[in-house]
């Protein structure tokens, strides 16, 4: 039964990621409570009110200054609404960077369902390794989601 819920919520995270205006990577996130109720969603994008029409802000390296990741956007959306996240699950069709990992731990999320990271990735590998270490130390359970186990592969493309 868990796998069915995992697929549903991961598919929703992918769908929500498509709302992102980022042209190189669209990532969504769904945070779910213990009874499979959706607590918060987010996608990678600019902060509220920031002018995302300025093309230069979407190009590297500027995009790293202007873009908030899906995981933190979901956490911030919950905070704005006063929704508690302690004991929740978080679904991300990518793997959290260290900044997002710290946020996940700080709000009390207890389970991460994500794609297994490539710790040798030249850009993100070091952050992935550190996030894995943090999750282990803080007892955040990780369940790997493999899109190839599903007929329709909606994983985010680079």
TrEMBL record:
GO molecular-function term, one example from the UniProt record: dCMP deaminase activity
Record domain CMP/dCMP-type deaminase: where: 4-135
The organism of origin for this protein: Bradyrhizobium canariense
Enzyme active site: 71 (proton donor)
Protein name from the UniProt record: dCMP deaminase
Any single biological process term in GO: pyrimidine nucleotide metabolic process
Keyword Amino-acid biosynthesis: no
Keywords: Hydrolase, Metal-binding, Zinc
GO cellular component: cytoplasm
UniProt family annotation: Belongs to the cytidine and deoxycytidylate deaminase family.
Annotated Zn(2+) binding sites: 69, 97, 100
Pfam families for this protein: dCMP_cyt_deam_1 (PF00383)
Cofactor(s) in the UniProt record: Zn(2+)
Domain of life: Bacteria
């Amino acid at each position: 039964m868990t796998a069915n819920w995992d697929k549903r919520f991961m598919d929703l995270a992918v769908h929500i990621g498509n709302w992102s205006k980022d042209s190189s990577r669209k990532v969504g996130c769904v945070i779910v409570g213990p009874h499979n109720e959706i607590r918060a969603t987010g996608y990678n994008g600019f902060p509220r009110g920031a002018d995302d029409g300025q093309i230069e802000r979407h190009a590297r390296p500027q995009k790293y200054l202007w873009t908030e990741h899906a995981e933190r956007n979901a956490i911030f959306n919950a905070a704005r609404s006063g929704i508690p996240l302690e004991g929740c699950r978080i679904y991300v069709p990518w793997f959290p960077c260290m900044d997002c990992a710290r946020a996940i731990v700080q709000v009390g999320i207890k389970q991460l369902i994500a794609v297994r990271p490539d710790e040798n990735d030249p850009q993100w590998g070091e952050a992935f390794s550190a996030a894995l270490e943090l999750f282990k130390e803080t007892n955040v359970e990780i369940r790997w989601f493999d899109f190839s186990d599903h007929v329709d592969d909606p994983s985010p493309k680079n």
